[in-house]
């Protein structure tokens, strides 16, 4: 059916994200010891502005994630929505800043692929220290262990999502960090707002970090939309991506207490300058203007609800 085709195109975006991240790490933009296990081939060359864009995205997300873990002293949960082949869990583990439990959710098909890779690693004895994690269940569709859990679910089906998270012992009373990195834009505004509402209603102490497109009204935004449409990929949620204000408003109207949003041009300019100077030496960038356009069309938005008064709003 048409909707199967549309979902398939959305699932394919998972490969875009992971191959771009894999390529950028192979060039030294940042270190990721685990990307290679989920994406075997380094793949074809990506343009320097794409690599710098991903650098800003990963560094920006990581700064906020780490701030939340610090604020809660890791006495918290993380739920990565539409996680794809993301490797954040392993980074936190290696840096000794693991939350009580780290959940990942994606379509069952993507989850099956990810678990397949993890199973191969386990069989081959690659030292991912998964043994330490005491994997208690990996049936191909979900993986559960004391600290790490991967769930196959459709984010548009909230009753099923809630049931699965409960089955794997999510604790709504614990401070919980939700992540969505280039995910909500593939859902209709109705569906994503229901999801944000459900999180706000269910988790009294929570932060939600959302990375996605913004300022999509102009010519450059139109080209971005057309590029995805050409691949049958419909940005169903693009109406929410008109401005930083519309991004903030979606959280406030879904019951979040306070919210911040920065475009990636601003985020990029706030990153530690020594490291930015380092990565800008990695590859020559001809098209500065193109990088700036790209950065202006993505944003990070973070919203909080702070029943336990942890001071999350200061993050
Ligand atoms: N967050 C990852 C990252 O940034 O590396 C992957 C991003 S990828 C662009 C979007 C991901 O969201 C895909 O893995 C896709 O399968 C997932 N996704 C989109 N809509 C979804 C839905 N309704 N239910 C579950 N997963 C979904």
Compose a concise summary of this entry.
The chain is α/β, with parallel strands linked by helices and 315 residues long. The protein has a single domain (2-314), classed as Vaccinia Virus protein VP39 (Rossmann fold), CATH 3.40.50.150. It has helices at 2-26, 35-38, 48-71, 88-94, 108-124, 158-167, 189-202, 219-229, 244-252, 264-270, 273-280, 288-296; strands at residues 77-81, 101-106, 137-138, 142-144, 148-152, 176-181, 205-213, 258-263, 298-306.
CATH architecture level-2 label = 3-Layer(aba) Sandwich
- Uncertain stretches: none
- Tally of individual domains: 1
Order of helices and strands: HHHEHEHEEEHEHEHHEHHHE
The CATH superfamily label reads: Vaccinia Virus protein VP39
Bin the strand percentage. Answer: 15-25%
Computed over alpha carbons, the radius of gyration is: 19 Å
Q: Give the CA-CA distance, first to last residue.
A: 44 Å
> Main β-sheet, in a few words?
9 strands, mixed
Mean pLDDT: 93
Q: Compute the number of helices.
A: 12
Main β-sheet, spatial strand arrangement = 3-4-5-2-1-6-7-9-8
Tell me the number of strands.
9
Structural class computed from helices and strand pairing: alpha/beta
Provide the helix percentage. 40-55%
Overall geometry:
globular
Described by its quaternary structure, the protein is single chain
CATH fold name, please?
Rossmann fold
CATH C-level: Alpha Beta
What are the key terms here?
315 residues, alpha/beta, Rossmann fold, nine-stranded mixed sheet, 12 helices, 9 strands, binds S-adenosylmethionine
């Amino acid at each position: 059916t048409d909707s199967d085709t549309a979902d398939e195109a959305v699932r394919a975006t998972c490969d875009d994200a992971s191959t771009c991240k894999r390529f950028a790490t192979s060039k030294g933009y940042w270190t990721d010891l685990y990307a290679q296990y989920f994406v075997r081939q380094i793949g074809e060359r990506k343009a320097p502005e794409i690599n710098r864009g991903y650098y800003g995205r990963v560094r920006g997300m990581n700064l906020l994630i780490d701030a939340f873990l610090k604020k809660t002293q890791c006495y918290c949960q993380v739920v990565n929505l539409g996680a794809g082949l993301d490797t954040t869990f392993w980074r936190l583990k290696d840096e000794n800043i693991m939350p009580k439990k780290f959940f990942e959710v994606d379509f069952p098909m993507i989850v099956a692929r990810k678990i397949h890779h993890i199973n191969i690693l386990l069989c081959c004895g690659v030292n991912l220290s998964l043994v330490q994690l005491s994997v208690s269940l990996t049936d191909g569709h979900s993986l559960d262990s004391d600290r790490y859990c991967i769930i196959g679910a459709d984010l548009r089906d909230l009753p099923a999502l809630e049931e699965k998270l409960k089955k794997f012992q999510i604790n709504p009373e614990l401070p919980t960090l939700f992540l969505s990195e280039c995910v909500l834009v593939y859902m209709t505004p109705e569906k994503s707002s229901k999801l944000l509402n459900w999180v706000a209603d269910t988790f009294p102490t929570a932060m939600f970090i959302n990375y996605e497109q913004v300022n999509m009204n102009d010519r450059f935004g139109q080209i971005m939309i057309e590029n995805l449409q050409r691949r049958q990929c419909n940005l169903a949620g693009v109406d929410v991506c008109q401005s930083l204000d519309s991004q903030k408003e979606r959280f406030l109207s879904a019951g979040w207490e306070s919210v911040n949003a920065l475009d990636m041009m601003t985020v990029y300019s706030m990153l530690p300058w020594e490291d930015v100077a380092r990565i800008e030496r990695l590859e020559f960038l001809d098209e500065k203007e193109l990088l700036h356009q790209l950065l202006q069309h993505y944003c990070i938005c973070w919203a909080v609800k702070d029943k336990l008064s942890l001071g999350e709003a200061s993050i």
